[in-house]
Amino acid sequence: MMYVIAGILGVIFGSFLNVVIWRVPRGKSLVRPGSACPKCGANVLPRDNVPIVSWLLLRGACRACKAPISARYPLVEAGTAAAFVVVVLLFPHDPWAWPAWWYFAAIGIALAMIDLDVKRLPSVIILPSYVVGGVLISLAIALGPTSLADGARATIGMASLWALYALLATLKPGGMGWGDVRLAGVLGGYLGWLGVGSLVVGAFAAFLLGAVWSVGLMLLRGATRKSRVPFGPWMIVGSAVGVVWGESLWQAYLSLIV
Predict the structure, then answer these.
(1) Residue 249 in contact with residue 201, Cβ under 8 Å?
(2) By the 8 A CB rule, do 182 and 126 touch?
(3) Where would you find the membrane-spanning parts of this chain (predicted)?
(4) Which of 60, 90, 120 is a domain's end point?
(5) Same domain (yes/no): 86, 104
(6) What was the pLDDT predicted at 40?
(7) For 146-158, how does the pLDDT look when each residue is reduced to its tens digit (9 = 90+)?
(8) Considering the entire predicted model, what is its pTM?
């Protein structure tokens, strides 16, 4: 039952994330006006605003002008639902932690999509996440099985990953954006909450996956070292790797060198 509830919540949040992804980079309100077709301006009817289902029934086109509706809308909704279910799978005995990780998943999906679209990570999403994430993690520690030591480790993770990215941005201006630096602090807090292994693996995976993607672009699409490649999505994917497999990979690595 909790998997079903988590999936439904994820679909609902995913629908809202589509609004965030479109409107926040353009400086538009998330509340007004209501959803409308960007081509003909026709208001989206309530029956056409049901996550995933409406897109399928409309066959991916506007009811009024038949303009195509991107498949990314239902994919974001389905992806958010899947992420919410995965949170329950990863932390089955700590429901107090679910809201914190659902928030982590939601902002991760939104920021990754925005960075892919406009190559920018909006501070209006990242900066409040320090407060919201901190409150949710603190509540999980106070009410759940985790300890104050986990909270201290989260603070250290936040500071250390922020400092690492700030150093890289300072040493090579233009190579690392300050939006990446601000995001690193949020991700570091969550990864540090889980453990040192999650923090190290999550940070390393971001650079590894980003490097592999960049090399692939150079080989297959003619990109150069000066081509702008958004790094935010790889920071988020790398953090997901750290959350899911970080501790086990870290322990396997330690067993090889000790």
Answers:
(1) yes
(2) yes
(3) 6-24, 73-92, 98-118, 125-145, 151-171, 183-211, 231-250
(4) 90
(5) no
(6) 85
(7) 889 999 999 999 9
(8) 0.94
Give the Å distances, CA to CA, from 185 to 131, 137, 163, 164, 211: 12, 14, 8, 10, 21
Report in angstroms the alpha-carbon separations of 106 from 145, 152, 231.
Answer: 24, 24, 18
Q: Using CA atoms, how far apart are residues 111 and 232, in angstroms rounded to an integer?
A: 7
pLDDT tens-digit series, residues 51-84:
999 999 999 999 889 999 999 999 999 999 999 9
Looking at the fold, whether 103 and 218 belong to one and the same domain comes out as yes
Tokens of 25: 């980079």
Q: Which structural domain, as residue segments, surrounds residue 30?
A: 1-90
Two structure tokens written together for 200: 């190290």
Residue that is last in its domain, among 90, 120, 148: 90
- 41 and 121 belong to one structural domain: no
Mapping DSSP onto H, E and C, the string for the chain reads CHHHHHHHHHHHHHHHHHHHHHHHHHCCCCCCCCCECCCCCCECCHHHCCCCHHHHHCCCECCCCCCECCCHHHHHHHHHHHHHHHHHHHCCCCHHHHHHHHHHHHHHHHHHHHHHHHCCCCHHHHHHHHHHHHHHHHHHHHHCCCCHHHHHHHHHHHHHHHHHHHHHHHHCCCCCCHHHHHHHHHHHHHHHHHCHHHHHHHHHHHHHHHHHHHHHHHHHHCCCCCCCCCCHHHHHHHHHHHHHHHHHHHHHHHHHHC
Average pLDDT over residues 226-255: 93
Number of domains composing the chain: 2
**Same structural domain, 222 and 185:** yes
